[in-house]
UniProtKB/TrEMBL annotation:
This is glycine dehydrogenase (aminomethyl-transferring). It catalyses: N(6)-[(R)-lipoyl]-L-lysyl-[glycine-cleavage complex H protein] + glycine + H(+) = N(6)-[(R)-S(8)-aminomethyldihydrolipoyl]-L-lysyl-[glycine-cleavage complex H protein] + CO2. One of its GO terms (biological process) is glycine decarboxylation via glycine cleavage system. Gene3D superfamilies: 6.20.440.10, Aspartate Aminotransferase, domain 1 (3.90.1150.10), Type I PLP-dependent aspartate aminotransferase-like (Major domain) (3.40.640.10). The keyword Nucleotidyltransferase does not apply. PANTHER family: GLYCINE DEHYDROGENASE (DECARBOXYLATING), MITOCHONDRIAL, GLYCINE DEHYDROGENASE, DECARBOXYLATING. Keywords: Oxidoreductase, Pyridoxal phosphate. The keyword DNA repair does not apply. Its EC number is 1.4.4.2. The glycine cleavage system catalyzes the degradation of glycine. The P protein binds the alpha-amino group of glycine through its pyridoxal phosphate cofactor; CO(2) is released and the remaining methylamine moiety is then transferred to the lipoamide cofactor of the H protein. It comes from Niveispirillum cyanobacteriorum. It is an enzyme of class 1 (oxidoreductase).
Length: 526
């Protein structure tokens, strides 16, 4: 097979083999073989007519502009078809179950999207005068009220743009509070081994040193292990609850009390809040700061389809240090405090981003909250935990559950059931792709060898879960039966088969380069 400089098959009419079916085009029915848009370049074919730009004197200080930016030229139908075909290759929550653990890939209700597109929300500009965006400020204020009520916390910073950004906000508030107390020597942060990787990264970014707390054999953090690490240089602990093993931390209140007694703060990673929303108030557990991923718990679009949003709820001790800007009730309606001089007795540590947060995500999250109500949000947590335990109970006889007993919102398995088969967790994941599933989270949390972390969320029906469970049982039994070849050849049915992932990571091709004409290549070969 001839390969071009981008590592793609350059055969003019490559064949496609699916079972015994061979096609001339390389297409497989509705699954179209698709080139890069740069490879589809057809000079002179454009979908729009633009007037020639007026020639002006260069203002580049004598530098010569490049003759072109290298964008491909295509007619409108070609562009539409290209991106439509690419969209058909995407795996999405709108196509089937997305079992990624620790990610809470739940359905995004279409009502949320309609609300976000309402005039006054969808077309406002962040630099409009405050008096022209009173409705938007009221919505931010109402969402903040719901977040404070659900968590039992007195304050919330709305501007952080994602979960890790929220962590940064919380730790910067803790940093500012310690400095205000005259305790700038407190620069050690306690982080459990099972924490999300962003926790130690954020702590280090803020100038703290990270001290790791080992996990117990039951997958949890013990208060004794925390007490052994405490000292007068501890700034805070960063603990996830439920933790990344999908387990509730039963000693969390005792841990919080111990850290507070030592003069530190308690930062709770709120990535898994979906498991306890409406059922447990973080304030009652002793939490001082916790970010809330609106995409994980309140159904706003996830990740790059978002953008993300990570409001941070703060305790009374940290509330004065919340970042700018924030909404207040003014004499003429709602107002936005954008400068420290206008913050009264508050001592904001500064500003985290250019404007006021992710407005579109605020609208979607509040629509979700109002649709469910307090009782509905409580049911969300209950159903998420029920679904995860159904998966755990249905698979633990053929797959190895990492810990005894029930789980919270996600079921954690490891690779012991694959021992002696020659099948690796990665092989298992590739076989899942052929079955039409995005693999679960693999090799995380790191405290479990060969981890397979499954989070079904509350939005999946029993019928969907039964099909997923049946698929997992089928693949597990196939591996145990010794069908190694099936797994090592997977995936067979994708546009691209098993790739050399090590080579791709070490030598990624990040920029398309137009290949030299064949005549030039032939001449160079001579």
């Amino acid at each position: 097979m001839a390969m071009n400089s981008q590592g793609r098959d350059s055969t003019p009419h490559s064949v496609s083999v699916t079972g015994d079916v061979v096609t001339f085009t390389g297409n497989k029915a509705l699954q179209q073989e698709e080139a890069l848009i740069f490879e589809l370049d057809n000079p002179g074919a454009v979908g729009v007519d633009l007037p020639e730009p007026v020639t002006t004197k260069t203002r580049l200080g004598g530098l010569s502009p490049r003759p072109g930016v290298g964008l491909p030229q295509l007619a409108e139908p070609d562009v539409v078809r290209h991106y439509t075909r690419l969209s058909q290759k995407n795996f999405a929550i709108d196509t089937t179950m997305y079992p990624l653990g620790s990610c809470t890939m739940k359905h995004n209700p279409r009502l949320n999207e309609k609300m976000a597109r309402l005039p006054g929300f969808g077309d406002i500009h962040p630099m409009q005068p405050v008096e022209t965006v009173q409705g938007a400020l009221e919505l931010i204020d109402q969402l903040a009220y719901w977040l404070k009520t659900l968590t039992g916390m007195p304050a919330v910073a709305m501007s952080p743009g994602a979960g890790a950004h929220g962590e940064l906000c919380g730790l910067m508030a803790i940093h500012a509070a310690l400095d205000a107390r005259g305790e700038s020597h407190r620069r050690r942060v306690l982080v459990p081994e099972s924490a999300h990787g962003t926790n130690p990264a954020t702590a280090a970014f803020c100038g703290f040193t990270v001290d790791t707390i080992p996990a117990e054999e039951n997958g949890r953090v013990s208060v004794e292990a925390v007490k052994a690490k405490l000292g007068d240089d501890v700034a805070c602990i960063m603990l996830t609850n439920p933790n990344t093993c999908g387990l509730f931390e039963p000693q969390i209140k005792e841990i919080a009390d111990a850290v507070h007694a030592a003069g530190g703060y308690f930062y709770c990673d709120g990535a898994n809040y979906n498991a306890i929303v409406g059922r447990v108030r973080p304030a009652d557990l002793g939490v001082d700061a916790m970010h809330i991923n609106l995409h994980k718990t309140f159904s706003t679009p996830h990740g790059g389809g978002g953008p993300g949003s990570g409001p941070v709820v703060l305790s009374e001790a940290l509330a004065p240090f919340a970042p700018l800007p924030f909404v207040v009730h003014g004499k003429d309606g709602f107002d936005l405090i954008e400068h420290a001089k206008d913050a009264g007795k508050a001592q904001p540590f500064g500003r985290l981003k250019g404007f006021h947060g992710q407005m579109g995500m605020f609208v979607r999250a509040l629509a979700y909250m109002l649709s469910h109500g307090a009782d509905g949000l409580r049911q969300v947590a209950s159903d998420a935990v029920l679904n995860a335990n159904y998966v755990l109970a249905s698979l633990k006889d053929v797959m190895s559950a990492s810990f005894e007993g029930p789980c919270m919102h996600e079921a954690l398995f490891d690779d012991r059931f694959l021992k002696g088969t020659g099948v690796t967790p990665l092989d298992f994941a590739k076989a899942m792709i052929d079955e039409g599933y995005h693999p679960m989270t693999m090799y995380f949390p790191l405290v479990v060898h060969g981890a397979l972390l499954i989070e079904p969320t509350e939005t999946e029906s029993k019928r969907t879960l039964d099909q997923f469970i049946g698929t997992m049982r089928h693949l597990a039994q196939k591996a145990i039966a010794g069908d190694l070849a099936h797994f090592q050849a997977a995936p067979r049915l994708t546009p691209r088969k098993r790739l050399d992932e090590t080579q791709a990571a070490r030598k990624p091709v990040l920029r398309w380069v137009k290949p030299a004409p064949q005549a030039v290549v032939a001449q160079a070969a001579e």
